[in-house]
Amino acid sequence: MPRNHSAEEGLWMRTSPGKDVESGRRVTMMMNSAGDGLLSASSDSSAAGGHGSDSLRGKQGARLSLLGKPLIYSAQSGRRNVRYRRLQNYLYNVLERPRAWAFIYHAFVFILVFSCLILSVFSTIPAHQDTSSYSLLILEFVMIVVFGLEYIIRIWSAGCCCRYRGWQGRLRFARKPFCVIDIIVLIASVAVVSAGSQGNIFATSVLRSLRFLQILRMVRMDRRGGTWKLLGSVVYAHSKELVTAWYIGFLVLIFSSFLVYLVENKINNEFATYADALWWGTITLTTIGYGDKTPKTWTGRMLSAGFALLGISFFALPAGILGSGFALKVQEQHRQKHFEKRRNPAAYLIQVLFKFLFINLALTKSPCFRNLVTKIKLYT
């Protein structure tokens, strides 16, 4: 396979009949501070050399695309390509990896979602249903426009990543969980707005179900999944302790419910079945205490008091385990950030030290340096 070098374009490339292999391009050309762009032709060389560049291209042959068609590049198209990639990368960072003032947009989106949630709550109250439903319809239309444009920009800007380039890469990006949630919410919003424009807001149970799907907008606020990753890491790190606490708590629950059921079954109609006793045990041991079922015999009350003191300790134990796990994880993250801040200065210091030792070793082996040191000793 021949290797060609274009003096005007300043890049190496391999060509074969009907193919254009772009792996040899110099990526650094894209970040040229002079703004020459990628694959730009030099007008100065063509003006000075006359037909030199044309003859060079004639010897090398025209560059071919994947379809076998010649590719024509110019300085203007190169600059446009650089601006295109830069805009794509910028929008991807704003939407997927927000920093600095980019949080203003995400705060605006959160206010829209939270306002929609509040209006959805008020729309179920008869006294505020008419006003809130009309305001909610307008807000839904605004959110469809905003989220629709955002979804399109997300899919387009994902092309700045190598794994998401091309239509297959875009499809891979669209299959991400949060992108699936976005498209589901968009479809639900369009269905609700189209029905609401005809005066049928929340008229059927189907529309109410679609309205419930819009609550998923609150989930999309954490697109990076940092909250769920932190929770998963804490649960995984303390999985043995949590399983032990839940297992003992479950045993206390079934034994206490069964004993109270045996004592209260024939006297108290509230414990007619073992399912009623399990419901009572769950509400009692989790310290909720609805009061809809209570033992009436002294034996049942004594059993309830004893198992409540025993069971509440195991049912409340997972909360303490998770709390301590979260605290340790946050300390670890702060420690990691502090380590990353000190890593670059430490690496620079090590590099300077090695340079100093290398220069010192080289000087000590030099004859000129030895003579200089000897003369200094004689004069001193």
TrEMBL record:
It is found in: Cell membrane. It catalyses: K(+)(in) = K(+)(out). Residues 103-332 form the Ion transport domain. Residues 1-23 are annotated as: Disordered. One of its GO terms (cellular component) is voltage-gated potassium channel complex. The chain crosses the membrane at residues 100-122, 134-156, 177-197, 245-264, 271-290, 302-326, 346-363. InterPro entries: Ion_trans_dom, K_chnl_volt-dep_KCNQ, Volt_channel_dom_sf. Keywords: Cell membrane, Ion channel, Ion transport, Membrane, Potassium, Potassium channel, Potassium transport, Transmembrane, Transmembrane helix, Transport, Voltage-gated channel. It comes from the Eukaryota. It is a multi-pass membrane protein. GO terms for molecular function: voltage-gated potassium channel activity. This is Potassium voltage-gated channel, KQT-like subfamily, member 5b. It comes from Neogobius melanostomus.
